[in-house]
Amino acid sequence: MTANWPARLVGCALAAWLAFSGVGAARESPDARAFLTASFGLTKPDFDRLDSGHVVTRTLGALDNREVATLGVARMKITPAVYVERLDDIVAFKKDEAVLQIGTFSNPPAATDMAGMTLDESDVRSLRRCRVGDCGLQLSAAAITRFQQGVDWRRADAHPQAERLMRQILAEYVASYLKAGAAAAMEYADESERMNLGQEFASLMGPDVPGWKSFPALRQHLIDYPSSDTPATTDRLYWSKEKVSRRTVVSVTHLAIMRMANETAAAYAVASRQIYGTHYFDASLGLTVLVPDRTAAAPVTYVVYLNRSRVDIFDGILGGMARRLVTPKARTTVTDLLVRLKQRMEQSSPTPRSPAR
Known about the structure:
Residues 1-28, 316-323 and 352-357 have low confidence and may be disordered. The protein is α+β, with helices and mostly antiparallel strands. It is built from eleven helices and ten strands. It is elongated and about 65 Å long. The longest helix has 30 residues, at 319-348. Helix content is 34%, strand content 23%. Strands 1-2-10-9-8-7-6-3 form an eight-stranded antiparallel β-sheet, with helices on both faces. Strands 4-5 form a two-stranded antiparallel sheet.
């Protein structure tokens, strides 16, 4: 596994909505630093680094031997309006050299939503040989059968045929997810032992998972989606094709953006749930928390990012070596991406005004 693969871990979950609570607000609210200390274990040296403009990152304990867990925090001099405006165009917001293609799904989803999605030649070759229990792409048994039967691999246009079918399969999958949520989660059948994404996510966001303890309403929203009745939450789904190590990964991501109650220090909490990926990721779940510093004279927001991803490269005889290489690199990559995001957000921000809720 090459060094740049952890970029995928931060891309989806940094897509978050911000709100800001002002100094001198009429109501009392928890102190930002006390909240960050209690919820994410930040220390005085961490805050000293954040105050000096640096990013704080660390590796967290894993819940599974396939898992990499990374925490990153940045202190950004921005207003929520600027961040939200940038985020509203998710295609521009995620612009990065690792993001090759990206788009959003309409409701109801259609294959044309992914008109710009292409498959690498290596993936098409894998699909040509793909069989249930032995496939180079992560797919359900039904999808694998469709590629066997729905593409005429003898024809010269087999590649565009495969791309059209992939767009159709993913659009249908997203439509099912919008109706049934986790019950529609795909079961990967690319290997002899099948992988149920619904079960993986249930484990990733258990009630005692560090970081998620402070956001039970958001956790419950993901569990109950789409039947959850949470008017303070906005849900979006998008697709992307991104560089991940030596391959590209086509993925589908569900963002759940929740405005928090006034009594909490966090303004917004955002879940980033990958509901499909062609390679590497058995599951990936991100949490972005946006905490305004109400003691600051000008708008300042702590952007906290926590990601837990389960990847398939830690199995086998070289799994331990892969973990030793990947884990520190994931932390470095989170640092680099947060630094770039901080610079981009602050450079694009207009002259700060007095903070207001």
